[in-house]
Design goal:
CATH class of the largest domain: Alpha Beta
Strand content: 15-25%
Number of strands: 23
Number of domains: 2
Shape: globular
Strand order of the largest sheet: 8-19-9-10-15
CATH topology of the largest domain: FAD/NAD(P)-binding domain
Radius of gyration: 23 Å
Helix content: 25-40%
CATH superfamily of the largest domain: FAD/NAD(P)-binding domain
């Protein structure tokens, strides 16, 4: 957004609570890699040009990438400037920070969709002696006590942690709720390549019958391993991970699981196959097979997800088998500092593709905000181009003038990563 605003000659600052790429530096586990290939980190005027475009960047590499971008575009970042309060004023907005007050005519909320872990209220009922962590606190298996680990949640984070911790010799029980199974590679290509080429990631929010539902879909069961291995439930089961249904409560020290494991697995397989059908249809219509005949394999379908015939419906946590619990049950944004009437009854910001229900207020980085890829690094550029155009029009209207902007609408000369 800063790059796009600068291209339109709009004065702005970027207020950052820590350093550039703060959350990537401080809230990720050691072995984490991006779920998207390096070539897919495309930002306005900037792209990956290293030697491993099909690899997956580590966290230090991701931090360096973002730091270089901020430097290359000369972003006016004010680090260590935490915003503690935002209120509406006659001219726009007033922001209280630890380093004084800022006032502006327009404001962009780009603080992310994953600020706080979603930990259920019944987590307080865990028996004493069991360590509880969120993915933001977890770093590596060595910080865990020897013994069993209960991981709650089987989307991207949960399955990656289950894979790593089970391989460390600590037996894992994985609680499985709604999830989306996906192969890392399909027909010889990364699944993200197919989704990008077939236009899946560019689906617009206005095209969805139920955008609220689409915005709550869990992340794909993917990992950025160098061997491209899958981390679906079949792969984890082969490692020895024990599968259980969704954790619905803890009563008198006993964990209680839903009996819907088989149904959730079947639904996940159905969603995966629907996507693969879409990809195959797109490939056939666009003659991708003939164009990439040396790299594209025939269509395939995967073995259905295997689940226990009679999965356990409870687990006594007082027995000492489980020594640690990791709450990989999702994340949510933190807008506790936003003192504006822009929230719906569920506490979500009301917006139309990032244009918030308050004059001059915008959102960036939310799930499926304008496109399916909005929460990915690759989605930020397209969203920023469109929202910066709306913001510029808003400022022009407020100023009572009509300004024709031409040069700013052209794509800036690419920078080299």
């Amino acid at each position: 957004m800063s790059r796009c605003l600068a291209a339109r000659s709009i004065d702005h600052v970027v207020l950052e609570r820590g350093e550039v790429a703060h959350s990537w530096k401080t809230e990720r586990w050691d072995s984490l890699r991006l779920l998207t290939p390096s070539w897919q980190s495309r930002l306005p005027g900037y792209r990956y040009e290293g030697g491993e475009p099909d690899g997956y960047r580590t966290m230090p590499e991701t931090v360096a990438f973002l730091e270089r971008y901020a430097q290359a575009i000369c972003a006016p970042v004010r680090t260590h400037t935490r915003v503690t309060r935002v209120r509406r004023t006659e001219e726009g907005y007033a922001l209280a920070t630890g380093r004084g007050e800022w006032r502006c005519r327009a404001l962009v909320l780009a603080s992310g969709a994953c600020n706080l872990p979603n930990v259920p209220a019944f987590a307080q009922a865990l028996p004493g002696g069991i360590a509880a962590l969120t993915p933001m606190q977890y770093r590596n298996p060595d910080q865990l006590e020897p013994g069993g680990v209960l991981i709650v949640g089987a989307s991207a984070t949960g399955v990656q942690l289950a894979d790593e911790i089970q391989r460390s010799g600590r037996p894992v029980t994985l609680c499985v709720g709604e999830h989306i199974r996906m192969p890392r590679r399909y027909r010889g290509r990364d699944i993200q390549w197919w989704m990008d080429a077939a236009g899946v990631l560019d689906q617009r929010y206005g095209e969805m019958e139920d955008i609220a539902r689409a915005r709550s879909v869990p992340s794909l069961q993917l990992a950025g391993y160098s061997d491209y291995r899958d981390v679906d439930l079949n792969a984890l089961g082969a490692l020895g991970v024990r599968l259980a249904g969704r954790l619905v409560g803890i009563r008198d020290g006993v964990a209680q699981f839903s009996g819907s494991l088989a149904n959730q697995a079947a639904l996940s397989d159905l969603k995966m196959n629907r996507l693969l059908d879409l990809i195959d249809d797109w490939a056939a219509r666009n003659e991708v097979v003939s164009e990439l005949s040396g790299n594209v394999a025939p269509p395939q379908r995967f073995e259905r997800t295997r689940v226990p015939a009679s999965p356990s419906l409870s687990l006594d946590l007082r027995r000492g088998e489980i020594r640690s619990v990791i709450w990989a049950s999702g994340f949510r944004p933190d807008f506790s500092w936003l003192e504006l009437p822009v929230f719906d009854r569920k506490g979500r910001i009301r917006h139309d593709g990032g244009v918030v229900d308050s004059p001059g207020l915008y959102l960036m980085g939310a799930q499926f905000m304008r496109r399916r890829k909005s929460a990915l690094i690759d989605g930020a550029g397209d969203d920023a181009r469109e929202l910066s155009a709306h913001l510029a029009s808003y400022l022009d209207t407020r100023a009572g003038r009509a300004v024709v902007r031409t040069a700013a609408d052209r794509e800036p000369r690419p920078l080299r990563a």
